Amino acid sequence: MPSAGVLARRVVSGRAEPLARSVRPLGAWTRWLHGGREPQEEEAPYADVPRPGRKWERKPYVTPMKALIRRAKEERRARQESPCRVLEHPPDNGLLVPHLVEVAHQVHSARERLLDGLTRLVKGECAIPVKRCRFCSEVHIGEVGHEIRTCEGPDSGSRNSLHVWRPGTVKDVVGFPYCYHLFDRVGKPRVVHKEKYVVPRLPAILELCIQAGVDVERYPTKRRTRTVYSIDGRIADFELDEEDGSQAETPPEPCSPCPSQSSSASAADDGAGGTVEETSVSELSSRTLRSWLDTRSGAARLMRKYGVVVCGYCPDVQVGPKGHKVRMCKASKHQQRDGQHAWQEATVDDLVPPNHVWHVRDPAGHGDGAPLANELKRYYGKAPAVVELCVRGGAPVPAQYRSMMRLDVVPPARDEYDLVA
């Protein structure tokens, strides 16, 4: 009679073998049953897109709440010990971080190249079709929209959650959230409700670059040359002295990019200035995808020093040490907050939303010729809309998105999905 370990090994291998061949490999609990050892954490070959949270639940905190409470207690203790102190570390003291000025210029130029490349890929002669649902924010890259029932828009129940597709634009592929512009991020870090229509709004990624050192003529900002003081938790600025009062009246000189950055930006602009005939679609897709990766990586580096907050219930973003006071939140529980946002620490996905779309390895046979079937959605991968658009144009798949796109999974035919385990 076989032992219990042999029976467990047979049962587990018999159940897990089809899943490993189709979608998911053996888990840690299976390895524990196989060898009788403690489970070990190993990297899974497939990384699924995190499911969006429920509308009435708050987004998870990036930093644990215990760490935030401990940090607040330490700041309060330091403020009580020394009520009047000089803020030493930038950008809290009003000065720029020197080694991040060049990064800000790189992110700014990468964003411009990204928008220029997407415009050519979506609206050019060899345009790649983009579809947008009429009732929700779902986007699809391909000639024919998919038939996956994920629509949550108005009257979706009468349509059996099917999408109603219409032609999309560049804003559907990548949409940068807007925020209020801060003229003085240290002296006046918040916008009150009365200034709702007075303070201009601009893309949050552009506001982050401006606060980090990029000068845009349309959105002026205050550049300090001296550090500020913190007196009992309030910021005091003593830069306007009698000695250099006349010099302080003149606006500071704008920070110019480094020579290497300016030369590289000019070379990129010259390359971007060519027509579609001079640059092939594959080269344009590769350059656009590289700009997308540079924008996200550079924004992540800037966010380590410059604060960015997001509402815990809606996608509204504000760049700065504090969130604004404009009562414009319409998400869950906004009546309890009088329309104000529940600000918390933001991530790079909040600043540069990826906007995931469905991906299939063979679009000619499954995506463009026939729509993606709802029964086969577990065999399809997902990728950010920019990545999917550039990969359709001929760009190589980035390493960080290969597991999410499931490139080694072959979807079965429509009449074979019930035969696969």
Primary descriptors:
alpha+beta, three-stranded antiparallel β-sheet, 13 helices, globular
Structure, explained:
With 421 residues, this protein is an alpha+beta fold. 35% of the residues lie in helices and 10% in strands. The protein has helices spanning 4-22, 28-35, 65-81, 98-123, 170-173, 204-212, 245-249, 259-272, 281-303, 348-351, 363-366, 385-393, 402-405, and strands at 84-86, 130-133, 139-141, 165-167, 178-180, 201-203, 229-231, 234-236, 308-311, 317-319, 343-345, 356-359, 381-384. The chain has a three-stranded antiparallel β-sheet with strand order 1-7-8, with no helix packed on it. Strands 3-2-4 form a three-stranded antiparallel β-sheet. Strands 10-9-11 form a three-stranded antiparallel β-sheet. A hairpin with a 2-residue loop joins strand 7 (229-231) and strand 8 (234-236). Helix 4 packs antiparallel against helix 6 (204-212), helix 4 runs parallel beside helix 8 and helix 9 (281-303) runs antiparallel to helix 12 (385-393). Residues 1-44 and 241-277 have low confidence and may be disordered.
